[in-house]
Design brief:
The complex is a heterodimer of chains A (about 290) and B (about 300). Chain A is mainly α and about 290 residues long. Chain A has 12 helices and no strands. Chain B folds into 2 domains: about 55 residues; about 240 residues, MetI-like fold (Orthogonal Bundle). In chain B, about 75% of the residues lie in helices and about 0% in strands. The N and C termini of chain B lie far apart (about 70 Å). Classes of the chains: A mainly alpha (about 290), B mainly alpha (about 300). Chains A and B meet through helix 1, helix 3, helix 4, helix 5 and helix 8 of A and helix 1, helix 3, helix 4, helix 5 and helix 6 of B.
Chain lengths: ~290, ~300
């Protein structure tokens, strides 16, 4: 091989290697500050404490209120995105004529491409006021409005990944079911969905990971008050919102306050990274099943 | 009861069963269609809401004015120029690196263990929350590398964020180039790099560009990572170098929507309209490129 060709290959390889560097960078940056944080706050206080008031005169560093806020909003989002996303995937994969698919797929792509700050505006100034008109006691900032809007935002992801999984199911399975006299619905629910199960689960898990990491919708519409509650009608704070909230102020480097956002970020990273790995593993499996 | 009567009864029962199952099937299909209608309705409601809130505020003055403490005089010129500047710089960083990484993975190392590891890693990176990239930018780019809260730091952070998307879409474009093109080039005595540079890349270009525009339109709407690295919210000037502090349109929108006064929220809606117009233009360009590509492929 000519030397020039060898140099090119090395340069290209280094560019590809940068992605490993990015992962390493994330882990190192988060780990360094998290370790510094844990020198001052015991791990058990951080993980199991029920009060999060790092900005108060007598600070408390119990992360559970942020975790509960994150889980609450994500659960509401999933209650919207999973059933609706799966139904729309079944419709697009099993029922829809080609012309309908051609219209709907690009619109779903648009829905997925709307910036999250726009969804935040929509949740705060459109969805929450409507909900308030028939849910008494719903605060202006709450978990319900942003949760529902987040569900709508994630729906296209669930729909398109589930549809891909269902389209991967061999035609023969469907025809066998029709030959036994099953209707389309019976075929969809009892043959296609179970056959595409690992792919659909992978889509669901990725959706959960997206919801946990979503920032702007909750930062705008859920209030910024850490509160250990499962009540969707009151203001709460998620892990992502806390990171943004602290970043909006001017945080001097090296303070405990500065380190809290990395500790919370570490927790967020571990959670979503774990979910992503499981999802990728499941996707790999369904690819093999019908390869 | 005679045998024929039993058969007739059984037939009737079967017919009832079929009718019932067909009815359930139709209801189910209607339900699924309803879900899609509701979803599309939500998108329509979103656009209508922002339009009715913000359209009256849109004017040339709004686009070319600087921020102000008085809502009626505030504009987005600083944020719009900031967004465009940051995105151009992001493209300048992410495009060569992303395309190079994709070429390596697709053309060179597709079977090696390292390449496989890099692939898995990229898929995972694509799903890391954007706010985490903000923490990476803050800890690594702003503090350790000492780039400060500058346009360059913002662009570098966004470049890391969109790299996985650029790499994945570029790989797909490269994969679509037929093998015979490469073999033809080798047969004429071209080296591997000559083949990639003169044959494969030009053919894959429309596909690569489409992916790039989609990646950048994701970057232009990003808010959280830039807030995290400390992009300033109140900037009264147009960024004039890669070292100047900056803000971007989504951050300005966030700032306005977070204020209790209705006038500022109206500004936010008008800002959203400008942002959506910008995104629409970029996406239209991507679709135009994709269509051109398809026609060429068919010819």
């Amino acid at each position: 091989m000519k030397p020039f060709e060898r140099v090119i290959e090395w340069v290209l390889f280094l560019c590809a290697l940068l992605s490993i560097g990015t992962t390493a960078g994330i882990i190192i940056v988060l780990a360094v500050e998290t370790i510094n944080f844990l020198r001052e706050v015991p791990l058990a206080d951080f993980l199991f404490g029920v009060e999060w008031t790092p900005l108060f005169a007598t600070p408390r560093f119990g992360v559970l209120p942020l975790v509960s806020g994150t889980i609450l909003v994500s659960a509401i989002a999933m209650a919207v995105a999973l059933p609706m996303g799966l139904l729309s995937a079944i419709y697009l994969s099993e029922y829809a004529p080609l012309t309908v698919r051609r219209v709907i797929k690009p619109i779903l792509e648009i829905l997925a491409g709307v910036p999250t700050v726009v969804y935040g505006y929509f949740a705060l100034l459109f969805v929450t006021p409507i909900l308030q008109s028939f849910i008494p006691g719903l605060a202006g900032f709450n978990a319900l409005g942003p949760g529902i809007v987040m569900g709508i935002m994630i729906l296209p992801l669930v729909s398109s990944l589930s549809e891909d999984a269902m389209r991967g199911v061999p035609r023969g399975l469907r025809e066998g079911s029709y030959a036994l006299g099953a209707t389309k619905m019976q075929t969809s629910l009892r043959v296609v969905v179970p056959a595409a199960f690992s792919g659909i689960t992978a889509a669901f898990i990725l959706a959960v990971s997206r919801a946990i990491g979503e920032t702007m919708i909750v930062a705008i519409a859920a209030g910024q008050q850490p509160r250990l509650t499962w009540n969707p009608k009151v203001p709460i704070e998620t892990m992502t919102t806390y990171i943004v909230q602290v970043s909006m102020g001017d945080t001097p480097q090296g303070t405990l306050e500065y380190r809290t956002i990395f500790a919370v970020g570490m927790l967020l990273f571990l959670g979503t990274f774990g979910l992503n790995l499981v999802s990728a593993w499941l996707r790999e499996r369904y690819r093999e099943e019908y390869a | 009861m005679s045998e024929s009567a039993t058969v007739a009864l059984a037939d009737q029962a079967a017919a009832r069963g079929i009718r019932r199952r067909r009815a359930v099937d139709i209801v189910f299909q209607a339900l699924a269609l309803l879900v899609l209608v509701v979803t599309l309705g939500a998108l329509a409601a979103l656009i209508a809401d922002v339009w009715s809130d913000g359209f009256s505020r849109l004017s040339w003055d709004f686009v070319t004015s600087f921020p102000s403490r008085r809502a009626s005089q505030a504009g987005i010129w600083h944020a719009l120029t900031g967004s465009v500047f940051v995105i151009l710089l992001t493209a300048l960083i992410a495009v060569p690196i992303g395309v190079a990484a994709a070429i390596y993975l697709e053309e060179y190392g597709s079977r090696s263990v390292t390449a496989r590891l890099i692939e898995i890693n990229i898929t995972n990176l694509a799903a890391v929350p954007s706010v985490i990239y903000g923490l990476l930018g803050l800890g690594l780019i702003v503090r350790m590398l000492g780039l400060g809260r500058s346009v360059l730091a913002g662009a570098a952070t966004l470049a890391l964020l969109v790299l996985p998307v650029v790499i994945l879409s570029t790989r797909e474009a490269l994969r679509a180039v037929p093998k015979s093109i490469r073999e033809g080039s080798y047969a004429l005595g071209a080296t591997k790099w000559q083949t990639i540079w003169h044959q494969v890349l030009p053919m894959a270009m429309p596909g690569i560009l489409t992916g790039l525009i989609l990646a950048l339109s994701r970057a232009i709407g990003e808010t959280a990572p830039l807030i995290t690295i400390g992009a300033v919210t109140f900037v009264t000037f147009v960024p004039d170098s890669i070292w100047s502090p900056f803000t971007v349109l989504p951050i300005q929108i966030f700032n306005w929507v977070s204020r209790p006064q209705v006038e500022f929220q109206t500004n936010a809606a008008a800002g959203i309209l400008v942002l959506l117009a910008l995104l629409l233009t970029m996406n239209a360009a991507a679709i135009w490129l994709r269509d051109r590509y398809k026609r060429k492929g068919a010819a």
